[in-house]
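Thread title: Can someone regenerate the structure for this chain?

I was given the following input by a collaborator and told the matching structure tokens would be attached. They weren't. Posting the sequence so someone can regenerate them.
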Amino acid sequence: MKIWKRAAVGMAAWSLVAAPSLLASTQVQATNPAAAHTASRTSLLDVFVPPVTSPTAESVWTAGQTVEVTWDTADPPQHITNPKGAIYLRKGDRTGPMLDEGFDILKGRQEVVVPDVPPGNDYRIVLFGDSGNFSAPFTITEGPTNS
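Best answer:
Regenerated them for you:
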């Protein structure tokens, strides 16, 4: 699992570390000296990046169906900057609609209803909390029609 460290001043300074226990010893790298200077005067925050475990590349969802999105919550950092999650559907290079929000990111799962969208095999789930994690591409099919 990857844990990102972020300066409290914003997203200008990011540094990847291997373990969540390195909060105090992680150096912040920035793209410009001003951001590095500002970041060095702020405390670092833990950014939790849990990988999405479902849906998988083999998943086939049907519009209107209730499904469960899951993600790996093993070894979360001690101080998560945003413990509330949001789940979005993504097709191709467009993100939206939002499927759910406001749930505990450490829960590791959330039921959502598959929206009525055009069928396709290039859908992804985007899990937001501290960061945005993508699922593998998966398929959504048409739901039953009301006659």
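The two ends are 47 Å apart (CA to CA).
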